Amino acid sequence: MQELTLITPTFLFSAISLLLLAYTNRFLSYAQLVRTLKDRYMEDHSALTLAQIANLRRRLYLTKNMQMLGVASLLLCVATMFLIYVGLQIISAYVFGLALVLLIISLALSVMEIRISAKSLEIYLSNMENIAK
Q1: What pLDDT sits at residue 1?
Q2: What is the C-alpha end-to-end distance of the chain, expressed in Å?
Q3: What is the pLDDT of residues 49-95, one digit of tens each?
């Protein structure tokens, strides 16, 4: 195994930071959507709104886990840099590997969330098609 340098986890550190920013923006847009759907559902208990609420609940769950895994990965990158700094190369390699695994899981959850978001849009589109008929 090749020795890690401080530069290696630094690359991942910046990528994870940008990814967390995207996850946070997604979460904030969901928070606004929850408020809108709540108001809409209180006025009209439609099946479409109820389906969107269920869909949004799954998306929020995935986004929360994406954020937690991303933060854990970021913390492990910082721990890796510290371990490299104090000269614990072997331990730093394992910690960095764990950071990579957590990032992979976070990205996989992101793909799942994107698929659910697309399904949500399909619900709206099919509803508009039904109204047009």
Answers
A1: 59
A2: 64
A3: 777 778 888 888 999 999 999 999 999 999 999 999 999 999 999 99
How far is C-alpha 51 from the geometric centre of its chain's CA atoms? Answer: 22
Is the per-residue pLDDT at 2 higher than 70?
no
Q: 123 burial class (0-12, 13-18, 19+ CB within 10 angstroms)?
A: middle
Q: Where are the domains of the chain?
A: 7-132
Task: Report residue 71 as tokens.
Answer: 């933060």
Contact between residue 58 and residue 115 where contact means Cβ atoms under 8 Å apart:
no
Question: What digits encode the pLDDT tens for the residues 4-15?
Answer: 777 777 778 778
**Cα distance between residue 101 and residue 14, in whole Å:** 17
CA 77 centroid distance within chain: 18
Distance CA 24, CA 63 (A): 9
Beta strand residue intervals within the chain, DSSP E? none
